[in-house]
User: What shape does this take?
Amino acid sequence: MLTPDDESFLQRLRTRAAEQAQALRVMLTLGSLMALCGWLGRMDAVTPLFLGAIASALAETDDSGSGRLRAQAVTLACFAAAALAVAGLIDRPPFFIAMLALSAFWLTMLGAVEARYKAIGYATLILAMYATLGIASHPDASADEHRHDLLLLLAGAAWYGVFSVAWSVVLPAQPVRVRLARLFTVLGRYVRFKASLFEPLRGIDIERKRLSLSQVNAEVVTELNAAKESIFRRIGAQPPDSRIARLRGLYLIAQDVHERASSSHDDYNALADAFFHSDLLYRCQRVLHLQGAACGRLARSIERREAFVVGHETVQALAELRSAIAHERGQARSPERVALLASIEALADNLEQLDGQLAGASEASAEAGRADMGLFDRSPRSWRDALERVRRQLAPRSPLFRHALRLAVALAAGFGVMRWIHPAQGYWILLTTLFVCQQTWGDTVSRMGQRMAGTALGVLAGWALVDLFPQHAVQALLAVAAGVLFFATRARRYLLATTCMTVLVLMCFNQVGHSNALIVPRLVDTAIGSVIAGLAMLLVLPHWQAQRFNELAAAALRNQAGYLRAIAGQYLAGARDDLPYRLARRNAHNADAALAVAVSDMFREPGFVRPRAGIALRFLIQSHTLLSYLSALGAHRVALDERQAREVGAASESAARALDHLAGTFAGPSSSADAASLPPAPDVGPAPQEADPARRLVDTELRLIHLQVQALSGYASKWLAPHGVAILQPSIS
Assistant: This one.
């Protein structure tokens, strides 16, 4: 009999295994390859087999069994073409570097199609470099021996593909569970951070808190998109099975919780001033903390495949909040305090609905009576659609185009440096450049430092391990362990991942020779390749985030206008969480997240390219605040009578037109005067006390929305002015 502690340990082990599924597949692949080579006495085959398996793992994306099989076939075809091209052209340097540069450009441009092809293109470049390294390491070998090594590379890639496809077939829902668990974990952190805004303390920097909230919101949006794609790839023409249907229901619950959690019902500084001597805001804060904790519990229940238990703490906290509101209503005298109390009451309604959404996660289907469970498919419809996506990115303004051209030039420059100095293992320069050169300056600089430091640490660790464990069998086990750790850490701890990969290479080369000869060349080539990547980022079509700000700001404003129109349309017939509404909401949050990421990256770039970064930062804060007011308007959708619905529609359309006007000033040649000349805002004042609570809430939110639009207009004027002056320059970590 297992004790509760044993069951808890096994549960944690299973959860960890699900999170590190790719690392487990790598362990099975490398371990079986190492065992086979040892049994056959062919340890010379270890290195190409390992490198092929690693390239195949880098090409892997989340997919269903059939989708993974198709992707693996495409991957092997691309790998074979790359290997044949390297074998045929490596002895003709001009043709080789032309092939490598063109391949780097077009394979990078495949990222315009979707994430699956981006991963395949990147992995194909890596396998081409592995093939080059293998041929260059044995210059005296015959052509047949080189072809044999290339076949081993492809065999290693295919062997990993066997494990990848089999895993997807046997455990089709596991990746979706992992994605949803991450989503609710991040969502819980977002809800708890939102609670920090409800502090009845004067002088709190709400704008700085909103800035941090926008960064956390970007993480939530990323996880929402990843979870949706994971679910969508497992839904075919037929209705999904019960497991996937339930996970889809949980995803839709996460969307609704996100909308309600991101809502703002009034100005937080005004609430803190009005209820400084009351415990109302503390009670709101407590409810949000409990709901954030409930999101965390839901994440754990998804990981462990257990039934979700809602708990009664939040219900009691909500009842106490209602009681406090009733007590405060009996004491409120001034109209301003009564109006703010109405906002608190609307907040309590919203929190109650949010709690109901979380309670729906405990149901077997998690569908909560939804009529429309559809998801929007963003994948290409046909080859023509895929080619059109690539064609649209073939323009100098496109960050992907610039990155593709930059990478091609960097590899060509690296090849020229290699031919000039004739290093012992020169192709490591190109491989390092390929790994380090990223799409943004901040990521590239970060990888430069981590790559060089990780290589140095890996060389030291590898040298020590070779001396401590001279037995080849032990070194083989260390190589497998290093490969597993590389895939377990590469997403979040790149320095450690680089260290592990360096150890793996040294252990593999030591199986057939002396790896000590690689130590100095590896260090020197890594440094050279990293510097080339950094210079390419600085000199070859640098695309600083300040240059992208106009486009991203216009997209955010345009999508917020679309979201507002979708909300206003439902005040006539009532709330319908149909696909068009959810799509408008998702587009607005995606655009907001893209703007938040760009502004964060802006502060990682050199100071001379971002003289007005402070204005961009203020604009982001106001834009995210506007989105929170839109979310509150969307969270409280109810059917109004025809006259009221027309009035709400007119006020909403006025704000939407103003947002479209601002978007137009960012998208085209504009001046600060253009940004300031907004269409006149309607007179949306405080609703009379006798007005219907729903109408009073709508009027409050519309008034706040129009105030945000005016504030955004002011920052747009400063940004578009020829000589804008930064008004805030904090650092963003």
The chain has 27 helices and no strands. The longest helix spans residues 545-573. Residues 723-733 have pLDDT under 50 and may be disordered. The chain has four domains: 1-171, 174-360, 392-539, 545-720.
